[in-house]
């Protein structure tokens, strides 16, 4: 599984780079804290499409922006197919309105899922705390 950028917030805006025309695999690996292998994986998955010059990969501003979306999506638990759906909507040509609407909907769904998982985890922690308390008190579990 490819690594993700360190612990940057999922909502972090990637500043534009008007000083650059293109980026190498080393540039993007360093900027986003991912391995070259991860970038090649995202390319194999069709999420980014660098230009090829011989064996070199040349990444565009579009690839860089898509990589930022991919890493954001991964950090908050979206599947690669959900990420692909959201970033592919950029090209719809409606000023990104549909992309935003879908991302908001998927985000709300993910929040709901995480809230349910948190409730399950909280319940398991409470049960384990009770269990440990019984054991620490030296009581026989069969006698309650």
Looking at this protein, list some descriptive labels.
144 residues; mainly alpha; two-stranded antiparallel ribbon
Please, could you describe this protein's structure?
The protein is mainly alpha-helical. Helix content is 56%, strand content 4%. The protein has 5 helices and 2 strands; from the N terminus they run H-H-E-E-H-H-H. The chain has a two-stranded antiparallel ribbon with strand order 1-2. Strand 1 (51-53) and strand 2 (56-58) form a beta hairpin. The longest helix is centred in the C-terminal third of the chain and has 40 residues, at 97-136. The radius of gyration is 22 Å and the shape is elongated. The termini are far apart. Residues 1-6 have low confidence and may be disordered.
